[in-house]
Amino acid sequence: YWIHGHQAHEISDGLRAAFIINDKPNEHPYQYDEDYLLTFEDWFKEEFADRMYQTLNPKESFPPPHGYASGLINGVNGNVTQELKFHPGKTYRIRLVNMGDLNSFQFSLPGHDMQVIEADGEYSVPYITDGIDIAPAQRYSVLVKAHDTDAYNYHFNATMHANFIPASPGLTPRVYTGNIEYNKNSPYQDTRAFYEKPDFKWLNDIEMEALDGQPAMIPTRNVYQDIGNKLYNTGQHLDHINNITFAMPNVPTLFTALSMGSLAMDPR
Predict the structure, then answer these.
(1) Which residues pair with 202 in a beta bridge?
(2) Which residues, including other chains, have CB under 8 Å from residue 7's CB and lie 6 or more apart?
(3) pLDDT of 130-160, one tens digit each?
(4) How far is CA 239 from CA 56, 77, 85, 93, in A?
(5) What are residue 181's DSSP bridge partners?
(6) Handedness of CA 6, 10, 13, 15 (dihedral sign)
(7) Spatial contact of 167 and 67, defined as CB atoms under 8 Å apart
């Protein structure tokens, strides 16, 4: 899991962190020797308030000047994050958390098989894949079995991108690489052909199955929401739900709920 600030969009200015809840030793469905955590973040040089002003300003182009972020892995520049040390024959759990604001990260580990065993805190039936496109707020765990030899080291890849921001060389997408170190004296394996293979498989999470096998919940009522974006007389394009745009409440929603008594549970 992960935690982050929402009230004033503090997440964008760095108030975010991974939150790992460990299973009891006798309740863990998968066995592995060690685990690693990789957190991914998009980092903007401007504070959120400045970026929001530019985004909502009808006189600004899109994407606005702040639209291109840098990528962080475990809180530092994605290209200098600490290496993951592998030992021959061992199995590793790698926890992947996208704590970013806008950008997705495409993660792959060339030269190794990845088995996805968890998504958003729920264990899954193992899903073998070559790469995972991790959207903001998504979390996955993968099992990776190390090779039986330390003859080579490897790189992992994390490409930061946002489909709604036009590609611009050197700005987006941005490619970050980290190291999988078996032996500091070994050379790095050339894995360029990994991305060219015709059967390269990206994770399709709609194909995943929950490990506990619980059936889908049966709905008891239908709720219809008209979600869209309109140009308003202020000159701004704003998102809306049922033709209502968001307005910051005078009192935080949680405080309102705690002070309303039984009305807090009234569905009307």
Answers:
(1) 131
(2) 252
(3) 999 999 999 999 999 999 999 999 999 999 9
(4) 11, 33, 45, 39
(5) 85
(6) negative
(7) no
Structure pTM?
0.82
Q: Which residue has the tokens 């500091």?
A: 184
With contact defined as beta carbons under 8 Å apart, do 15 and 5 qualify? yes
Say if residues 76 and 38 touch (Cβ distance below 8 Å).
no
Q: What is the pLDDT of residues 95-109, one digit of tens each?
A: 999 999 889 999 999
Rg (CA), the chain: 22
Positive or negative, the CA dihedral 125, 129, 135, 139 is: positive
Distance of CA 138 to the CA centre of its chain: 4
Contact 94, 63 (CB under 8 A): no
Q: Residue 154 burial (CB < 10 Å; 0-12/13-18/19+)?
A: buried
Q: How is residue 33 written in tokens?
A: 């020797």
What is the 3-class SS of 184-238, one letter each residue?
A: CCCCECCCHHHHHCCCCCECCHHHCCECCCCCCCCCCCCCCCCEEEEECCCCCEE
Residues near 39 by beta carbon (within 8 Å), at least 6 away in sequence:
2, 18, 72, 73, 74, 75, 97, 98, 99
Residue of 139, 127, 140, 121 whose CA lies nearest to 23 = 121
Q: Which of 2, 4, 74, 72 is nearest to 37 (CA)?
A: 74
